[in-house]
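Hi U.,

Before I forget, here's the chain from the pilot set. I'm dumping it here mostly so it's searchable later in email.
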Amino acid sequence: VSNRLKLYKRVAGKWVYKGRDTNGDGKITESETNQDIDGDGDKDELGWTEAGLGAWRHKSNEYDTDRDGTKDVRIRWDATTNRYIFERFVDPNWKKMGEDHGGDFIIDSTDGGVDWNLDGDKNDKVGFHEGINLWGKGKDSVLWDDEFATMLKELDDKGIHIVIEMVQCFGGGFIKNLDGIVEKIVTGSSEDTKHCNRRNADGKVYAADEKAFIENLHGIDVESWNYAFDKAKEADKAAWIADGSNPKKKNEHEKWEYPVIPTDSGVSWVDGKYALVLKLPDSLEGKVHDFEILFGLQKPRWSNGTVKEMPDNYGWERIPGGFRIKSMEPFALSPILFKFEGTGGNEALKVQLTDREHKPIGYILPHPIDALPEREEVLDAALGDPDVNVGWVGDYCEGTLKVDFAGIDLTGGDVPLARVVLRANGIVWRDSGKLPANISRFDDSITKRVLCGQRFLLEVKATNIYGQVVTKTQEIVIPTPSQQQEYTSPPPTPPPYTPPPTDIPTQTILQASVSVSGKSTQSGEECTSSITISYNGTDLTGGDYPVTRVVLTVNGSVWHDSGSISQTQYHHVESRSAACGQTFNISVAVTNSLGRTATSSGSYTTPVP
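Structure:
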């Protein structure tokens, strides 16, 4: 008797000799028998020791698939039918979902499929979770992908930026859970593949990609991780080729990171003083509300930073590891200039764009530009003398206002204009939009319908390609020409003269009252408004001293005059168009037959939506 292990393989119903333990070490291997025992394409790993040989033992397993603390699915060996049964627990019984009819230890469509939810069909869809084996005990030995994402989300919500390198089987399955939570994740495998280590020249097994990644990682910024990950993939591929290029052992590396968005943005810096000219692409119109400068992501890393200058209507705040510049409105597509100081690095700037909820959209990498010229040397704006044409139309005083305005590149083309906007009382009247390239002068005019007495603060704002801004303002009040009172022929007959008593207080015999309402509507950048004035003149004696005249005056102009009347009560409602946020000084004067006068006055500002 040789006292050595021998290998037989079942072929066509017969046992065929395939080899033995040739070196007598008590272990029979693939290389000794020239058999690919585990079916992985090579013959140099698997082996059985004598102690490991024995009779078949069929193991049953139970799983808590919905992680509610109760094992709800099991695979068990049925000794009666000599096959595996796949079952689901429906309290209080286990019910069969499928079984291995073919005896190949796989339950698939050839066995009739699996009724996963026990609804009578076999077309159910099942999702799988990936997990990190923590080498613990019981339920907590695996950290599942969604649990991991929940833990990291708490850090992300605090403004902590996270980068992850994960070399494990099925690591790519974590990407979809961590997308948007982490800054970047690189994995050594896809969602559906295992990760394979390599064998070095000494025959020892090691993770070639993990080793190369650590050796080439020189910073925590995303670019450093990209460099290290590229080196890791190169090293793993070289080791895979040296190990025989077995297709089944090829690692499928994957990664995800917030995208870098191409823009024409530029940045200049001198001694840690930065001037960022932000130019957003059309694809981001209406989407960007903030941007962040994160000290740890700069190259080299900043130790501190602060904002020194920014346009009106912007603010800034410190966040963990950096600062955020924010706006209540979406960032414009025209160039915007920001100035800040950063301590520690002058090689490159990385800016993270965020949305209204401060969630990242992506990064921009502004290209270096020369130091900006002084604004006064390159840019100007102009407002022409307003052309007003108004007059009385019946009881209304109205007309037109024409405004000429311009933006000027003082260099004649070296620093072209980017945008010119005319506003009145904060409302945009004309916006050039994003100007074509190489515009050195922009002239325009606009004519608007106006009311006498209206007050306008005109503002023209010119922006150049560096985001530098020049603003010119001018205030104008629409004049009210004198009005000739016209009478029809014959003129009204005045009421009989009644000698005025001297001992009656005016407030006991005569009253003036007024109420005002307004309505404003915002449509885009246009805001329209109206004002309605309802007023009364009342003879409190019931006819002894009737009302003889009622006059409504607004902003010093007569809006309505009753003329000569004789009434116990006079009521009138006057409605006019107006500008949003326009203020009106209103006065109602009521005269009676005694020549006494009662007034009611006040001010009203139309609402701004």
